[in-house]
Design brief:
about 150 residues; Monooxygenase
Length: about 150
């Protein structure tokens, strides 16, 4: 499989009929840079941008997947993360629990018990409701609406 050949400025101008600014570098100049320079440039991109870049070209894909690039990203994040975690504007664990962002074991058990009680209450109310036939007799339901539940006469 041969590599993709970048069209020249003349080919692009002929194909699209637009005048290309002479001050712009021709397409594909980025790929002529040394890999070390490209790796340095890729180091400034977010992960989502790296993903898009890796889909553009085989050479850029190999560079975007280079382990050293991701090791440098992790090293940089490890350096800047501790001050952010100890920031005074960061809420405490008790604040997060109060806002239900972080759940303690007690709150998880409490919610589970509450759901169980609601389920028991609902099943008792459903068992106590009148049958569809009695609702038809009291003219609450139409007779043809009762067909799906049970045979009504």
């Amino acid at each position: 499989m041969t590599g993709a050949v970048c069209p020249t400025t003349v080919e692009i101008t002929q194909r699209y009929g637009e005048a290309i600014d002479a001050s712009l570098p021709p397409p594909g100049v980025l790929l002529t840079l040394p890999n070390e320079v490209l790796l340095h440039i890729l180091g400034f991109l977010d992960v989502s941008d790296l993903l898009s870049t890796s889909r553009a070209n085989h050479q850029l894909r190999e560079l975007a997947l280079t382990p050293i690039l991701h090791a440098n990203r992790l090293r940089h994040n490890r350096a800047i993360l501790p001050p952010l975690l100890s920031s005074p504007s960061r809420p405490s664990r008790s604040d997060l629990i109060a806002r239900s962002i972080v759940q303690s074991r007690t709150s998880v058990v409490s919610r589970r018990l509450n759901r169980k009680l609601i389920s028991i209450r609902l099943s008792r109310r459903l068992a106590a409701r009148p049958s569809p036939e009695s609702l038809v007799q009291r003219c609450v339901l139409l007779a043809n609406a009762c067909r799906d539940f049970a045979p009504c006469t």
